[in-house]
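Appendix B. Worked example

We walk through a single record from start to finish. Start with the input: the chain for TetR family transcriptional regulator, Actinoplanes octamycinicus, length 70.
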Amino acid sequence: MLERGGTAGTLRADLPTAWMVSVFYQVVHGSAEEITAGRLAEDVGADRISTTVLAAFACPGERRQEPAAS
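Next comes the structure step. The output line below is what the pipeline stores for this chain.
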């Protein structure tokens, strides 16, 4: 998916795919740790992951719309 997005111009093509996969998993694990520590509410964890990953993987200069606040 990351490679297709890079080829299509919807995701970054200037970073190695392995790096992007690693970043994704670090964000997911970090979110889980924050939830476990009580610093992040479970119901916002997925939105924080999406917002962070989209910002990191979007093509430079391209703005992504953030998920609506609940």
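Two observations about the output. The mean pLDDT is 89. The chain has one domain: 2-57.
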